[in-house]
Every structure is written in C-alpha cells, then in structure tokens.
Design goal:
The structure is a single chain. This protein is 34% helix and 31% strand. The protein has helices at residues 40-47, 88-98, 103-116, 132-144, 162-177, 189-195, 213-218, 233-237, 262-270, 285-298; strands at 2-11, 14-24, 29-34, 55-60, 63-64, 73-76, 150-154, 181-185, 198-203, 206-212, 223-230, 242-248, 251-256, 273-282. The two termini are 36 Å apart. The model has no long low-confidence stretch (mean pLDDT 93). The protein has two domains: 2-217, Rossmann fold, CATH 3.40.50; 221-282, Alpha-Beta Plaits (2-Layer Sandwich).
C-alpha cells in the first residue's frame, strides 16, 4: 500500500501541497486530478523521493520511501524525458539498470514489450527517428520494464491514436490485475472514469473532492435526460426544473436542476410522438471537475 499522510510542501513561502492524504492499495487504480498548477507534479516527485515533504509522511508497504524503495516505482512523466541520440535498446539498458536490473533481463523484457506494442523493428533505431506515438510507447516501457509495485502514469495517452490507446488500456488493466498499485492522472476525464474507482481532485494544492467515483457522482442531484422524440425545444425549456436544452443530431439533451423533476418530465415526454429514448444520466466526471474547480477559481 502507498500511504500519503498529511503531506505539505512549501517552496519558500509558496504552499504547493496542503495537508494531502490518500492511500492506494494493491491492484487499485487511483485517480489524482487537477488543473495545471494544482500540485500533482509536486506530489508525484515527493512520492518518487525527488522532493522532500515539508511535513507529513509517505510510505510504500510501510517503509519510508528512499532510493532503495524507488526501485519499486515506475513513473511515466507528462514531460517526455527520452535521450534522443540513443537507440531504443541503449536507452532501455541505461534506464532499467538504474532500477537494479541486469542486462540479460533487460534485453529479454524489452523484446517482450516491443513485440507486445508491435514495434520490434525499432529495437536498434535511435529515439529521435521515432514518431511521437512510438516515443510514447518507449517511455511507457521504460516505466514498467522493471515490474514496479507502484506505477505513476501522468497523461499516459499523449500522442497516441485510438488503436494505441486501446493497447495501453489493455496493458494497464493487466498490470492492475497482477497487483500493481497505479496512480493515474489525465485531463481526459473519460479515461479517468474508465479506470478509476477512487479519485482525488486537487486545486491549488488542496483536496476539494475525494472518494469513490460512484459515490461522488451520486452526491450530485443534477441530472441529464437524453430523449429521442418529436418534442419542441421551446416547450421543453418551459418545463419545471429544466435548465438547458440542447439538440444533438436526432437526440435532445435536457439539463435538469434536480433528479426530483425526472418523473414530471417523463410524464410530459410520454405524451409526445415517436418516443424511442428516455435515459437519465448522472453528471460526467468532466462536468463535476469543471463545476468544482471553476467555482473555486471564481471565489
């Protein structure tokens, strides 16, 4: 288990992280979210022992994280950090040896992962010759080649097309199933919803939302109703509780103030012609994030 307990970090007089606490269990993907400058990168660097907390404690499986413990951690940074003049093989031998692996094991693991990502032919190519997407694959391999117990993924899908995103998703889920603790950070909230049962949202170093994603969503009374029917946008706007009406192709999206209005809206829709859909959905994580962070930035 990764345990972050009451961690605060100052840069001189600036408080980058404010009394942060969370846990990540074995075989769990934990979402750590926030706008730029929220304190995510500082938190990752403290977990990696690249920065020391001003106060508080960070442990991995009960041990305070030092340079021996960091060998058990993999980190895919948002800023790409590949040595462009090296070949893929040279780069991986260099990076993985820093994690305590021997050359023979590195070469075997590299071949396995290059085959998995369908880029075997790039083993002896220089990094600078690779496309952005293939560089991202190499960076990902460098974060997992030593079979870390804890894996930090910061914007892992940057530069990937949908096919390769699916490939990454498959690997990440396999790592989870094999017991890897994973911290996942992305501005693409649909990916966070796909992976994370638990999450935390930071704003200016402070925790503004934390818990199980399902519980967080259910705590918001606002809902959206998706309708397919011959219904007047003007008349729908007049219904009690309706905040907004959007036409999206052949579908109508109603934003409502509270779930208590669903029944009365349903009764209205049933009187319309050609009704083929009436679906009530909770706010998306993107909408919750925008709502929470936006409100605080307006204060």
């Amino acid at each position: 288990m990764l345990k972050v307990e009451n961690v605060t970090k100052y840069y001189d007089d600036f408080k980058a992280v404010d009394n942060l606490s969370f846990e990540v269990n074995k075989g769990e993907i934990f979402g750590l979210l926030g706008a730029n400058g929220a304190g995510k990168t500082t938190t990752f660097r403290m977990i990696m022992n690249l920065l020391e907390p001003t106060s508080g404690k960070i442990t991995l499986n009960g041990q305070v994280i030092n340079y021996d413990i960091t060998d058990k951690i993999g980190y895919l940074t948002e800023e790409r950090s590949l040595l462009l003049k090296l070949t893929v093989k040279e780069l991986m031998i260099y990076y993985a040896s820093l994690k305590g692996m021997v050359k023979e094991d590195i070469e075997n693991e590299l071949k396995k992962w290059l085959k998995r990502f369908k880029i075997e032919e790039y083993e002896n190519k220089k990094i600078k010759e690779l496309s952005k997407g293939n560089k991202q694959k190499i960076q990902f391999i460098s974060a997992i080649i030593h079979k870390p117990e804890l894996l930090i993924l910061d914007e892992p899908f940057s530069g990937l097309d949908p096919i390769n995103v699916d490939m990454f998703i498959e690997v990440i889920n396999e790592l989870k199933e094999n017991g890897t603790m994973i911290i996942f950070s992305s501005h693409q909230m649909n990916h966070v919803e796909l992976f994370c049962e638990k999450l935390m949202i930071l704003d200016h170093g402070k925790t503004i939302l934390k818990g199980n994603l399902k519980d967080i969503k259910s705590n918001y009374d606002e809902r959206k109703i998706l309708v397919k029917a011959d219904a007047s946008k003007t008349e729908l706007k007049k219904l009690k509780g309706v905040k907004n009406v959007l036409i999206k192709g052949d579908e109508i999206e109603l934003s409502i103030e509270d779930k208590k209005y669903v029944e009365s809206i349903f009764k209205y829709i049933t009187k319309c012609k050609n009704v083929t859909k009436f679906e009530v959905v909770e706010l998306s994580l993107h909408e919750i994030f925008t709502k929470e962070v936006g409100v605080r930035n307006e204060e």
